[in-house]
Amino acid sequence: MMRSSPLTRPLERQVVTSGSAIHPVLAPAAFGLLGLGSALDLVAHRGALTWLSFYALAVGVALGTWCALFALLDWICFANLGKSGSWGLDGIPTLVVIGLYSGAVLLRVEPTWHAATASAMALEVAGAGLLANKAWIGRELAGSLFTRR
Fold first, then answer.
1. Is residue 4 part of a domain?
2. Cα separation of 103 and 101, whole Å?
3. d(Cα 124, Cα 109) in Å, to the nearest integer?
4. Is residue 50 in a domain?
């Protein structure tokens, strides 16, 4: 659905449902679940909290992937109107974060109680570090390429 109001603001094009863009709504939920899963892994090494952490990470990855799909649709269909420019570079760090957390979830499928292994924790720490710096990285990438055009 496209929405515009010629008198109050320039044309905005985004994939929307019931008046709101989908991916900006899903992103905080996805990143919140990923952060919750990482925090629970730091607190608990065995038991029910590791199980909860695994499922928080799995749902966070699923929501992040769904969010990335709608962001990709916005980028492909309406590239010149996005805040991050025609390249959509703010999505690149997001995809890397989702990829790192996906690897951590896949490494935890087999262990008892879905406990985090050392390699899964390393992927989670890398993902959390990139997630903490994602906003700055996305702005810097988009800004540097915009000034080169």
1. no
2. 5
3. 15
4. yes
* Per-residue pLDDT tens over the stretch 101-129: 999 999 999 877 788 889 999 999 999 99
Q: What is the pTM of this model?
A: 0.74
In terms of C-beta distances under 8 Å and separation of at least 24 residues, what long-range contacts does 141-148 make, across chains too? Answer: 141/89, 141/90, 141/92, 142/83, 142/84, 142/85, 142/87, 142/89, 142/90, 145/85, 145/87, 145/89, 146/85
How many independent structural domains does the chain possess? 1
Name the stretches of the chain with pLDDT < 50. 1-2, 11, 19, 84, 86
Mean pLDDT of the chain: 78
